[in-house]
What we know:
It contains 1 helix and 6 strands; from the N terminus they run αββββββ. It is α+β, with helices and mostly antiparallel strands.
Amino acid sequence: MSNSDRHSVRKQAISAKVADAKTTGLRSLDGKKIAIHLVVNGKERFVQGEGAFGLDARLGGVLRVHCTAIDEDFELLICENEWQGEIKSGEAFGCDYVLRLVMPSK
């Protein structure tokens, strides 16, 4: 395989990853390992967990992410109809995907 062929194959693989991340919805994170980048009052924290998507009678579609941290375990709920963030590849974090959640300062 020539260098130009390798470059073309590599470029196509990167394009496919970017396209996949752009079209990924919360429903497709069910059973996936997820990194969450939390920004609260300007302080950043990364946590990891496993996603479980389900339907709630009051909230609609909800992604539940059970996170295990050094000091405690907790669960984050992300409502599908309110989610406006980006879902990106989590390869750099050893996960399937990464979500960024920013909580505005009061």
